[in-house]
Amino acid sequence: MSVLVTGARGFIGLPLLDELVRNKIRVRALTSSRAWLGEAHGDPQVVEWAYMAGIAQDCWQDVLSGISTVIHLAARVHVMRDTAPDPLAEFRRVNTRATEELARAAASGGVKRLVYVSSIKVNGEETQRGQKFSESLAAKPEDAYAVSKWEAEQALHKVSRETGLEVVIVRPPLVYGPRVKGNFAQMLSVVARGIPLPLASIDNRRSLVYVGNLVNALVACAVQPAAAGQTYLVSDGDDVSTPELLRQLAAALNVPSRLFHCPSSWLRLAGKLTGKSRQAERLLGSLEVDSAKIRRDLNWVPPYTLQQGLQATAEWYRNQHK
């Protein structure tokens, strides 16, 4: 078995290479940076690095030669302040059209399966308390990024129907772990510095997935016959409230948890007045996923607990800020 990984030097890509190598799977790792080729990651006997200037172009033939399975991570990611003149068009160019081009090239080149990392944002932005997103619920993408991911999923299923390419869709919630960026990295920094936070009164539930659990699930989706044609939601399986998450992070960082009470309505108002309503909702609202399907179909069990994932993330953070 030989696997092509796109987005191979990213936050998820590098741990995925390690997981594939641990499973004795040969890997071709795709990067858009020539500089990275001089810093190859992994055993060169097992991991072959390949360069391609960008994924949104018709030049897949060479990198797909000899490949049986593709795990497609490369994407234009969601950003809070998008500076593109037409964000939806740019998301579609990279996330939708380039994904379909890859799938068609893969099918033409004899690739058997493509595993696509989508996003839980395809399901929507939040769940009601006591309810969870599942694969059977209708898609409800609300922003340009989520729309592009949903359209990519539909394009992949169309290619599968037309060519026989096996497609597996994986929709993770917030992914955390060493080298994490974005909101989770900011949260780590705030907790580590002991900044008091008015979040003790929040009563919500959030699903997360540790990057080590996600890449383990991606390998299962790549190798197990039962995964063909399926869509899976994945999570650690241990949903937490925002205050619980912050307290666990503080414990992992060996710092005191400095939370105090403030009505959620005040926090929502503050978010509205500062133009940060979406950020506020990510702290205040719930987003839970039901990962029972992948556990049942593939007999998948997350190899790491939430506590282990947070501890590994905290250790990485401390090493970066010595």
Strand residue content? 5-15%
Mean pLDDT: 90
By CATH reckoning, the class of one domain would read Alpha Beta
CATH architecture of one domain: 3-Layer(aba) Sandwich
Radius of gyration: 20 Å
The stretches of 5 or more residues where confidence is low (pLDDT under 50) are none
The H-and-E topology, N to C, reads as EHEHEHEHEHEEHEHEHHHHH
Q: Structural class of the secondary elements?
A: alpha/beta
Quick one: how many beta strands? 9
Spatial strand arrangement across the major sheet: 3-2-1-4-5-6-9
Write a structural description.
This protein has helices spanning 13-22, 34-37, 61-64, 87-108, 144-163, 182-192, 211-223, 242-253, 264-273, 277-284, 292-298, 306-320, and strands at residues 2-6, 26-31, 47-51, 69-72, 113-117, 166-171, 174-176, 208-210, 231-233. With 322 residues, the chain is of the alpha/beta class. It has a domain at 2-176 and 210-236 and 288-304: NAD(P)-binding Rossmann-like Domain (Rossmann fold, 3-Layer(aba) Sandwich), CATH 3.40.50. α1 (13-22) links the parallel β1 and β2 (26-31).
